[in-house]
Amino acid sequence: MPEQPRVTLYTRPGCHLCADAVAALGELGVPFTEVDITGDRELEAEYGDRIPVVMLDGKEHGYWRVEGARLLRDLATPA
């Protein structure tokens, strides 16, 4: 069974920074799960002002931009 990606990206439709984050993760070759927070009250309340939000192993790693070098370094550390 394939391993689940360690990275989750919280996004919403029409968000240009979200599109940039998806592209950045793709360029880095980082597998990720994208979650649209639209309609999820809890996620909207927690992350709505900071979208996109990068989560690593269930913890917030960053928001608005993907910090590529930092993310790759942290991914090299076992979960």
TrEMBL record:
Classification via Gene3D superfamilies: Glutaredoxin
Provenance organism: Hamadaea flava
InterPro entries, alphabetized: Glutaredoxin-like, Glutaredoxin-like_YDR286C, Thioredoxin-like_sf
Any Pfam family hit: Glrx-like
Protein name as catalogued: Glutaredoxin family protein
